[in-house]
Amino acid sequence: MSVSGPKSDETGIIEVQGVTWQTCSEVAALLQCTERSVRRACEQGRLPAKKTGRQWLIREDHLDTYRFGKAA
């Protein structure tokens, strides 16, 4: 990747231009549910996410809104 490209580590957290994105596996661990449940919420539009290839990416602020009903 280029210097301005996505930065990722083994935790499933990706940072692009100051915005933190998380993978379904990371979100599932935080919500204590299955990855399938997270993917279904993304597919149904209940959890705003972006699909890149076969992977769903969820913005950290959207996850906070989904979890707590308001932006943190």
Rounded mean pLDDT score = 85
Strand proportion: 25-35%
The rough form would be described as: globular
Alpha plus pi helix count = 3
- The tally of strands reads 5
The termini sit apart by 31 Å
SSE class: alpha+beta
Rg, Cα atoms, Å: 12 Å
Helix content: 25-40%
Side by side, the strands of the main sheet go 1-2-3-5-4
H-E order:
EEEHHEEH
Largest sheet report: 5 strands, antiparallel
- pLDDT < 50 runs, ≥5 residues: 1-5
Textual characterization of the structure:
The protein has 72 residues and is α+β, with helices and mostly antiparallel strands. It has helices at residues 24-31, 35-43, 60-68; strands at residues 7-8, 13-16, 19-23, 50-52, 55-59. The chain has a five-stranded antiparallel beta sheet. The radius of gyration is 12 Å and the shape is globular. Residues 1-5 have low confidence and may be disordered.
Quick rundown:
This protein is 36% helix and 26% strand. It is an alpha+beta fold and 72 residues long. Strand 1 and strand 2 form a beta hairpin.
Keywords:
3 helices, disordered N terminus
Layout of secondary structure:
Layout: E1 7-8, E2 13-16, E3 19-23, H1 24-31, H2 35-43, E4 50-52, E5 55-59, H3 60-68
Antiparallel strand pairs: 1-2, 2-3, 3-5, 4-5
Helix pairs in contact: 1-2
